[in-house]
Amino acid sequence: MFTLTNDANLPKHELYKQLNQQLSALLQDERDLICNAAQFSAFIMQALPDLNWAGFYFARGEELVLGPYVGKVACTRIPFTRGVCGAAARTLTTQRVDDVHAVPDHIACDAASNAELVIPVIVEGQLKAVFDIDSPKVDRFDSTDQAGIEQLVRTFADACEWQWSI
Q1: Of 45, 47, 40, which Cα lies nearest the Cα of 19?
Q2: Mean predicted lDDT score pLDDT of the chain
Q3: What pLDDT does residue 93 have?
Q4: 8-state DSSP, 101
Q5: Which end of the chain is more exposed for a tag (fewer CB within 10 A), N or C?
Q6: Cα-Cα-Cα-Cα dihedral of 18, 22, 28, 31, to 10°?
Q7: What is the model's pTM?
Q8: At what angle do helices 33-47 and 12-27 cross, to 10 degrees?
């Protein structure tokens, strides 16, 4: 059985190092993409405070299709041309938004979400998915969160078998 340990007294960058070690251990003996995506989403929700949604959208053509997540019912398809997730997919860059209500084409799946962090999952030069985290707290994510969660996403991606399609 896996037990998440979280030392609240650590500096944030050290906390992310600790979380990355724990994530590596959690995913160590599993290569299945869906299983690991579900575990990763739950891991993030359990490990980090002030979140109300964490999960994946998988790239399919020019849109994103909902994958494993933890949170309220979500949008099922997002075109690359819309929203924060679409911008991450379109530009292949992390999108960190302090206040989603200031984004003109933000797609509000949960009205309680105020901040968002979306990280593209790129494997062998190809977009495979985006990992999306929402918070009810404005300004929830800073550069340390971004760097830490980007590393966690790389650990997740490296732990998965990506050779088959969903």
Answers
A1: 47
A2: 92
A3: 98
A4: G
A5: N
A6: -100
A7: 0.93
A8: 150
CA 158 to chain centre: 15
Q: 159 and 27 in contact (C-beta within 8 Å)?
A: yes
Give residue-wise pLDDT tens across range 35-70.
999 999 999 999 999 999 999 999 999 999 999 999
**Number of domains forming the structure of the chain:** 1
65-100 pLDDT, tens per residue?
999 999 999 999 999 999 999 999 999 999 999 998
Residue 17 domain flag: yes
What is the Cα–Cα distance from 48 to 100, expressed in whole angstroms?
19
Query: In sequence order, what E strands does the chain have?
Result: 53-60, 63-71, 77-79, 95-97, 115-123, 126-135
Whichever domain contains 52, its CATH number is: 3.30.450.40
Q: Take residue 67 and report the two structure tokens written for it.
A: 């994958």
Q: How many CA atoms lie within 13 A of 128 on its CB side?
A: 20
Quote the domain boundaries for residue 144. Answer: 12-159
